[in-house]
Design goal:
2 strands, little secondary structure, 131 residues
Length: 131
């Protein structure tokens, strides 16, 4: 498993541990650290509850998000290339300007998802539920 540690000031922050506390704790942390780079590339977030999580501009390349609850999450400008989003719940998520090149969205729930300016080149959308 990938550990996503941030070092600044006098402390280390384990991003995965903050995410495991739930979307409310994550969003509070993001509000306090708005300019902090979020690199969760390769992280295993399978089945995670990320409902309404602020993941804008996050690096999630090759992340395992299969079955994750990303409903109403903000993934705008996120790097999701080669991510596994199989059967992820992305209804009402914001994906504007996101990079999903080579992402697997097989069976993903995409109702009312914002795909404005999204790069879906080579993405797998077979079986995705769009309504």
């Amino acid at each position: 498993m990938v550990r996503a540690l941030l070092r600044f000031g006098s402390g280390d922050f384990d991003l995965l541990e903050i995410l495991r506390r739930g979307p409310d704790a994550w969003n509070q942390w993001r509000e306090k650290n708005p300019n902090q780079e979020i690199n969760l590339s390769g992280a295993d977030l399978s089945g995670a509850n990320l409902h309404s999580a602020d993941l804008h501009n996050a690096k999630l390349s090759s992340a395992k998000l299969n079955g994750a609850d990303l409903r109403s999450a903000d993934l705008s400008d996120a790097k999701l290339n080669d991510a596994n989003l199989t059967r992820a719940k992305l209804s009402s998520a914001k994906l504007n300007n996101a990079n999903l090149v080579g992402a697997n969205l097989f069976g993903a729930h995409l109702f009312n998802t914002d795909f404005t300016n999204v790069n879906l080149r080579r993405a797998e959308l077979f079986g995705a539920i769009v309504f």
